[in-house]
Amino acid sequence: MGASRRDLLRWWGIATLTTAGSAAAGPPPRWQRLRARLHGDLLQPGDPDYETVRLPFNSLFDHQRPAAIARCTRVEDVQHCLTEARRADIRVAARSGGHSYPGYSTPHDGLVVDLAPMSGIEVRPDGTAVIGAGARLGDVYATLGAAGRCLPAGNCPSVGIAGLTLGGGIGWVDRTYGLTCDWLRGARVVTADSRVLTASADREPDLFWALRGGGGGNFGVVTSFEFATAPAPDVLTVFRVRFPAGSAADVLGGWQPWSVAVPEEVSSVCVVLPDGSVDLTGCAIAPATALRAEVARLLGAIGVDAPLEHAEVDYLTAMRIMTGGHPPRNAFRESSRVADGMWSDPAAVAGTLRGRKSPLLIVGALGGAIDRLTPTDTAYPHRGAPTSISVFGAVGDLPPERVTREVDEVQQELAGLIGTGTYINYLDPEQEDWAATSYRHNLPRLRAVARRYDPDRVLRFPQSVR
Length: 466
Ligand SMILES: Cc1cc2nc3c(=O)[nH]c(=O)nc-3n(C[C@H](O)[C@H](O)[C@H](O)COP(=O)(O)OP(=O)(O)OC[C@H]3O[C@@H](n4cnc5c(N)ncnc54)[C@H](O)[C@@H]3O)c2cc1C
Prior knowledge:
Elements: H1 5-12, H2 29-37, E1 42-43, H3 50-53, E2 68-71, H4 75-88, E3 92-95, E4 111-114, E5 121-123, E6 129-132, H5 137-146, E7 149-150, H6 161-167, H7 174-177, E8 184-190, E9 196-200, H8 205-211, E10 221-227, E11 230-231, E12 236-243, H9 248-261, E13 266-272, E14 278-284, H10 288-302, E15 308-313, H11 315-322, E16 332-338, H12 346-351, E17 359-365, E18 387-394, H13 400-418, H14 434-439, H15 443-453
Parallel strand pairs: 2-4, 3-4
Antiparallel strand pairs: 1-2, 5-6, 6-10, 7-11, 8-9, 8-10, 12-14, 12-15, 13-14, 13-17, 16-18, 17-18
């Protein structure tokens, strides 16, 4: 069930590095045929924009060189790509924001179905938003916010709405509003056999269910989404508390019960560093007075003195602040755990970083509105989980192998401390049992949907649903 090492190496182009230049040797007929059919451009090695457009967010995968990148400008372009991929048995993957942790939207020697040009965002008078699959979160927040509307989404402005939604979508206001996928009302999908379908509660309901948490890259290529939205809240308070080195056990011990007991309007994340310091950041849909009272309770429970920094702002400003500070690209390994319930040993959770150089823990509160749906209502299975922990290792001074090893070791230890669940949007290519831990009880139904909509596995990749 795990992605085999050979599958991964082939996908990443490591097993075929010696043939990396083959795509540039002259366009085979299949590319000429596709180029002639597309309204958008088809970029290949040697074309002026190829070297920049091909790059994924995670620069660890920069060596992956697609044979062609189809800059799709309309649904028909996506249909032509899938027809060609099917006919010539070409490795093919959709790309929206390009933030796949393992670089799955950049198939080596394959075809990238690049949705970036299809990034329009329309807010209708009834508040429904129709969003092109190529849109990034920064533009989604800005356009919806300017129209006075809110869609809960993720914490990095360059992440694509497509990958985020298809895996669930956790973010700064999810305890109030739920996951991004919970607001999805319909999606336009090109299936592997190049049919164009609309998936919604009434049409293709199994596909619609799978698109809400079943993970990007499976079942078909979404070209646009239709979301319900909420009125944007008027007043938010963003906040931050920096705790000193060595305080992580106390902070997590106080934060965990607090994070689930606070009103749903308060979301928070603890970033735990290897020296045991903690950076607590959060966002409350509440005025500063209310937030200050909640944080005072937390600081009392923790018993460590640390100053509260905060600002009362409007919705758009809050989203700008909370999604700011990300680099345009990064080199990293990341893995995750989703807690089964409350963890009994916060000191041991903090202690997973002891003696390690690279990883940090990003411990986020879930619950609230996320749990208004049941674990089978959508393909996202972790309803009821109080927290998730990402284990993040930046590849900088340390070699990637060391970072990968440390991230994996911490992730393994966390399984025994908080639970074995993992979040599909934080896919870890090194993890053997990823499908069972990411999809849990929903895996058999997801497999049935994948068999029905992509029986020939045209959209396969090392960690696709199969
Ligand atoms: C810096 C950073 C911050 C993040 N923050 C958050 C966060 O706050 N909350 C959260 O939930 N997640 C977060 N993520 C994880 C993110 O949600 C996933 O990596 C997501 O898959 C990225 O989507 P994308 O469209 O940017 O990526 P892509 O690489 O374009 O796509 C990801 C996967 O989906 C497939 N795919 C892309 N477009 C389509 C499409 N139109 N139809 C079908 N399949 C498609 C791709 O083939 C690939 O397998 C973050 C990731 C990064 C790198």
